[in-house]
Amino acid sequence: MKQQYRNEKPLATPVQYVKGVGPVLADKLSKMGILTVGDLLAVTPTRYLDRRKILAISELAAGKDRTIVGEIVKSGVSFMGRRRKRIYEIIIDDGTGKVSAKFFHFKQKYYEEKFKIGQKFLLSGDVSAFLNKAQFIHPEVEMLGIDAENSVIGKIVPVYPLTEGLYQKTMRKIIRNAWDKFNQDIKPIFSEEFAEKYNLSDPWSCLQEMHFPSSDLDPELLTIGRSQAHRTLIFDEFFFLELGLALRRKNHKIKPGISFPRNDEIYNYFLKSLPFELTDAQKRVVGEIFEDMDAPRPMNRLLQGDVGSGKTVVALIAATRAIAAGYQATIMAPTEILAEQHFDTINKFARSLNFEFGILTSSIKGADRNKILSDLKNGEMKLIVGTHALIQDGVEFQKLGFVTVDEQHRFGVLQRAAIREKGQPSADEPGWPDILIMTATPIPRTLAMTLYGDLDVSVIDELPKGRKPIITRLYEEHNRKKLYDGMYHELKSGRQAYVVYPLIEESEKVDLKNATSMSKEIAGVFEPEFKVALLHGRMSGEDKERIMDLFKSGEIDILVATSVVEVGVDVPNASVMVIEHAERFGLSQLHQLRGRVGRSEYQSFCILMADYRRTEESRTRLGVMVETTDGFKIAEEDLSLRGPGDFLGTRQSGLPPFRIANLARDVGILGQARKAAFQLIEDDPKLAHPSHRRVKEVLVGRWEGRLNLADIS
Ligand code: ADP
Ligand code: MG
């Protein structure tokens, strides 16, 4: 999603053309993603300072957000308290009295330069009482020039995000200059009727309010992003995202797809060959997928289900139906280990169906690879699992009808499109393949709406019968003996264990016990009675595979691994997951790791080994893990702890970086914007009505080539 206003002429003028912006500054701005005048005007203040009321120093009492103006009468290093802590202190006089301001963190030379005696300053911040006298600790300071031009007195003042070497004052000045020159180019986007219906202000007054708030506004509302201007800009940002998604969805639905005939004989045969019965949730989801497969439209369905809920079998059932109808199918996984895993599942469950299947990863080379490629092209190979190797050039299918993408957020929207292209319609088959996207990362509803807003959603919300909730414990180093005793007990009863580390090599700076040396320690404790092996990311694909095979077959009892085991590994006999330095892992990663156990009727355990020196945030994270095994709850917590950007990794997820909207905070507005957008596409699918001309223009600009716009132009 492009930044607001970037492509909206003449706001697309490069930022260098703003008065006061030279090449050096332009370079700094570009680091913040600010390339055009529009980008600059769309910069959102992180907060606002209330400088409407300047107090006389004589009236100053302890309290929040106080502002004074005066002259420096003393400036220099001094010492405070019994410990004689070095601080920097300035004393300001405004004619009614004096007040001290103290700084604990300072660069002496720089401060002496800045705080010259006689210089006029504005100070604002919280005031505390010290020995009955008011004082500022680390106030915001602003040097006041001789001319009133840059004066910020008597106003609500925005505070902008900055980058190194860019100052608040500069930012305020160039935004002012950009505004003065270009504000008349900011045109309304929505019709009056629409704006009224959704309670939106026009963009001009929104930006004015953002950058130059009138002094009768509540600065607190501005800071927390709840002013009318914020509301409108947030709505605008969500609206164009959702509009694009609505359009995409519409386009999927009108494309030709494949109607796969049902084949109950094969379906029932397959069900019977499974060593278990499908859960009700699995049956329901198969039903939903089958309905999509009936219809002559391409399926675009997201399958959400917690780790271990049995998504793979569901995907396999659907793929089998496509294969029975004469098509090819593929399952794309994010890692080689996971691809192997799927390959094993197929081997186990689908062998009896007698069709050719294979695996393609980047470690498969030479003659093997050529054979696979030719079998795919001539259609002999019916089902192929693999990694991103599947979307490379040279991989051609004869008739690809069904695509499963596992753990999709690791691939991102673009790869999703790339694998779809492999099934491009031909004269022989004019339909587009069906796509099933599986994710084990439970995604909060809000994120799902934006990330997957163009998809239909199925959820497996039930674990296979007989699974016992995993018992999770938080241990510290002094519990290590207890940990080993517990592991011993499980191993002795025939179970297996994982021990996971965050890093592979000892770094001198961080005193981390790494997987290599710890696998030695663990071997020292448990061998020769039990076999210990190490698995890490720098091993060759072949070595990883060999070790995974030995672990699966039970020849290895304890697998010491870096986080490569995170995704998808399925060894039902494993009942212990030990996570070393658990405080270093994010919540969803911890949840994924824990999901490697508890995959059978055995009681399983997850032991979080954590440093007692952990941060407040990691304390919260670990607390959540101990408290619940509910993936959706964990996802919500994770979202609120980390914010949506980090939640899925913005880059990979294809999640647009929001400029002003905040998914965790603005759920309500998102819902409204989504409804409005989908309604608009419903009413006017091609945005052809004259009153939607601006909306269409803006949409095209924001999505910049990422929409198939043939359908609206
Ligand atoms: P997911 O991909 O959702 O994490 P998997 O498909 O890997 O889960 O399934 C986890 C394990 O549960 C596998 O060993 C699978 O064979 C098994 N399984 C799947 N469905 C069922 C079921 N209905 N009953 C019992 N076991 C099941
Ligand atoms: Mg899986």
Condensed summary:
Helix content is 38%, strand content 19%. Helix 8 (228-254) crosses helix 23, helix 8 (228-254) crosses helix 24 (693-703) and helix 10 (280-294) runs parallel beside helix 11. Magnesium ion is lined by residues 311-312, 440, 568.
Strand content: 15-25%
Widest sheet, order of strands: 11-12-10-13-14-9-15
Uncertain stretches of 5 or more adjacent residues: 508-512, 648-654
Q: So how many helices? A: 24
The biggest sheet, with number of strands, parallel, antiparallel or mixed sense and barrel status, is:
7 strands, parallel
Query: What's the CATH topology label of the domain at 264-460?
Result: Rossmann fold
Rounded to the nearest angstrom, the distance between the terminal CA atoms is 19 Å
Structural Rg? 30 Å
Determine the fraction of residues in helical runs and give it as a percent range.
25-40%
Mean pLDDT: 85
- Small molecules held by this entry: adenosine-5'-diphosphate, magnesium ion
CATH class of the domain at 264-460: Alpha Beta
Overall SS class: alpha/beta
